[in-house]
Structure to design on (284 residues):
């Protein structure tokens, strides 16, 4: 397979996230319920203080940054950013719902951060760097906008096997030739599965005092049917691949997934699907 064209990938990625924003907003509550420990760890890691300026990159619905917003009052500002306006619309709606006022919403590409040098005290980036065409450039930009002593906190998914909530569907589809696994090193949800890659990138881009840990999380659904509906809603890759199957092939796929995930289903039919993520913090 030929290497990805970075510009084509960036354009396709923006188109993807613009189209996915509504689905992620609709499923925000169930996804954030599982991800809450990750958001809390990240916010604690940057140690937000009153008066700080905090930047959240690839904020999506903004849940992680909004946890920091109250901690930087009075006088602090959260810059809630995303590469597409559609995601920012989701964050604006969530901020209004929560009554958060000390926030600026800005469309920012993580590889070209439109902020002055040494402008912010902390940066939060949950599950984004591994999806970028050039994560090293994004981390250098992150380092540039941080003030001396400022802190970065990030999250990146661990091994697919430890994340059946996301990997099971792709694995079954790949086994049927319906999706092609990404090339090694290509942008992907699991591109940072090896924590050493995180450490090396942070060192290469000028960060210090690097800490990498793992957090186990659980996504809970009323049933596997609800998990499947959510997966089809938030994953365009899975939805496209499933849409190309015949009805018989779709039934076979669901039977295989039900068998693969049976150990996570309780007697009442509810499903608790585990996940594992790396979290990292570093200083500028």
């Amino acid at each position: 397979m030929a290497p990805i064209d970075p510009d084509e990938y960036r354009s396709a990625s923006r188109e993807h996230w613009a189209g996915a924003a509504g689905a992620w907003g609709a499923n925000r509550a169930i996804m954030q319920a599982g991800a809450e420990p990750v958001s809390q760890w990240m916010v604690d890691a940057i140690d937000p203080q009153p008066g700080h300026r905090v930047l959240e990159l690839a904020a999506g619905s903004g849940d992680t940054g909004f946890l920091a917003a109250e901690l930087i009052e009075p006088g602090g500002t959260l810059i809630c950013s995303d590469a597409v306006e559609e995601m920012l619309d989701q964050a604006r709606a969530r901020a209004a719902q929560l009554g958060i006022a000390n926030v600026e919403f800005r469309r920012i590409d993580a590889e070209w951060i439109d902020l002055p040098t040494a402008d912010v005290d902390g940066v939060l980036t949950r599950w984004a760097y591994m999806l970028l065409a050039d994560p090293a450039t994004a981390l250098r930009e992150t380092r540039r906008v941080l003030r001396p002593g400022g802190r970065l906190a990030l999250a990146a998914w661990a091994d697919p096997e430890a994340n059946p909530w996301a990997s099971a569907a792709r694995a079954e589809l790949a086994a049927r030739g319906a999706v092609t696994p990404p090339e090694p090193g290509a942008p992907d949800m699991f591109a940072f599965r090896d924590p050493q890659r995180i450490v090396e990138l942070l060192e290469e881009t000028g960060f210090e005092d690097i800490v990498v840990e793992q957090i186990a999380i659980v996504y809970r659904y009323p049933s596997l049917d609800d998990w499947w509906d959510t997966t089809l809603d938030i994953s365009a890759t899975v939805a496209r691949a499933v849409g190309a199957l015949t009805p018989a092939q779709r039934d076979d796929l669901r039977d295989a997934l039900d068998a693969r995930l049976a150990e996570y289903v309780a007697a009442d039919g509810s499903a608790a699907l585990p996940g594992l993520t790396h979290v990292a913090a570093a200083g500028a």
Remarks:
- The first helix runs from residue 6 to 26.
- The two ends are 37 Å apart (CA to CA).
- Residues 61 and 91 are 4 Å apart (CA to CA).
- The chain has one domain: 6-160+182-219+274-283.
